[in-house]
Amino acid sequence: MAGIFKAYDIRGIYGKDLDEAMAYKIGRAFVTFTNARKVVVARDIRPHSEPLFTELARGITEQGADVIDIGHGSTPMLYFANGTLDADAGVMITASHNPAEWNGFKLCRAKAEPISGDTGIVDIEQIVHSGNFAPLPEKSGKVSTYDIVTEYAKHVAAFAHLKRPVKVAIDFANGMGIWEAKALRGLIEWDGLFEEPDGRFPNHEANPLNHETLRDLQSKVREGNYDFGVAFDGDADRAGFVDERGEIIPMDLVTALVAQDVLAARKGVVFYDLRSSRVVKEVIVAAGGQPMMSRVGHAFIKQQMRDHDALFAGELSGHYYFKDNFTAESSAMAVLALANIVSAAKKPLSELIAPLRKYFASGEINTRVSRDPKTILAEIKAAYADGKLLELDGVSVEYDDWWFNVRCSNTEPLVRLNLEADTREKMEEQRDKLLAIIRK
Predict the structure, then answer these.
(1) d(C-alpha 299, C-alpha 361), whole Å
(2) Using one digit for the tens of pLDDT, what is the confidence trace for 118-152?
(3) Are 355 and 286 within 8 A, CB to CB?
(4) Is pTM, for the whole model, over 0.70?
(5) Reading across the β-sheet that carries 328-329, which strands appear in turn?
């Protein structure tokens, strides 16, 4: 069972890395670590999520905590339930976009505060492996059920201000987007792809970051008359978008659009992923917001949002975080924000996006290296000492007409480069210079 305790969650192949016995131990360890008295639990549609829930709940209740079972639901729904039902903690049983044979647990404290490797997963792992659980109480907790869908839908609907009807194509990938989209009923019209729940994901991987999985959605949008298309990942805490022509919208530009909608209602801080185009910062400023750059990774972003009382944050991986969903993801709110923007415009989404495509980006380039990645970062820092340096996550350097970020993978000997410039020639020139340092 080694290796299932990750930086942001617990995840492994069911029956090999993760089984019911482990779920029971994790339930006991979770309550031992958090001292929670009330835990909200949801699960995805994978066939093994049900037996894992049964044993996780047994571990939680034997340790004295009550379980509020909200049944099948999206990860954003779990976060919402955790906050609104006054729970001490929450667990989402899911392996997100991983293949069907995988499963796992996403963990949070009260008000959807994430538990990561740095803030508890390592401790839970130690308790599991040592068996050093808190003594069993005289009285076990109880399992009750709760239907959160109606309340979540009402919550999302409060942010609708559509000026005209909006029609969307949605690729559910047979996953939890089917539940997430229940919050959009009556707000927008949609036609669905693969909207039969099936945790085997028979049609394609539920991962909008993989552009190949967007082909069916692109075809549907191009064949119909839609304002845009959206594809959810396996647990619906991420979403990818295409415009009315079926063209993929970069996720940093989605952040810019959603920020415009959020800032139309009230002003405040908006975080953007440090890998994002410079145009995102420009859009936030133009909309009257205060832009701030975030690290990569949901636990870091959520903490930064809490520290600065931010309204919204967008990550290049398709996570969209809202203060109004307990500083956590809500793909339904992101979809609604785009619908709000499109409904108020006198031009299609592609024309709203066009002015934002003003710079030239390298995309993320990953290089497997044989020498110490930290040495590479030090060399780059020295070579570009004449630029504006930021070490929020790896090394970022800004110049007047271009910028870059180089950071290391937390789990592999990989160095990741993102670079953007005012012209394609400048981007390619500087990209090649940096890659020469990284790969020498």
Answers:
(1) 26
(2) 999 999 999 999 999 999 999 999 999 999 999 99
(3) no
(4) yes
(5) 290-294, 269-273, 312-314, 320-322, 328-329
